[in-house]
Amino acid sequence: MTETQDPKLLWFNFLKIFTRALVQINLYKPDHPQVKLALEEGQALLAQIADSLSGGEFSITIDNDKLLVNGIALVAADKLPNSLKNLYSKFRIQTITFSPGVTGDDLLALAQVQAFKGEAKAFLKERGIEKITLNESVYAKVDAGQPQAAPAAAPAAQAAPAPGARSAAADERMAKKISEETLEVALATVVSRATPDADEQKRIMEILSAKFKEEILAEVKKAIEVVHREKKKVENDMVRAESVMTSMADGVVVVDKDGKILMMNPQAEAMSGPLAQLSGKKIVDLSQIENQVVSLAREIKSENKEDISREVTSLGSAELAETVKKATAIIQNEDGKIVGSVSMPTDAAKLKQVEKMQQEFIANMTHELRSPLTSIKAALEIMSRDSGGPGNAASGVLNTAIRNTERLNSIITDILDFSKLQSGKLVFHQESAAAEEVANEAVDSMKAWASSKGVNLLVRSGPGVLPVYADKRRTVQVLINLISNAIKFTPQGGTIEVSSDPGTDALAGFSFFSVKDNGCGIKKEDQGKIFEKFVQVASGEKVGGTGLGLAITKAMVVMQSGRITLESEPGRGSTFRVAMPVYKGQGEQPVFEQSPEVKEEAKPWWKKLLGL
Question: How many domains does the chain have?
Answer without folding.
Answer: 5
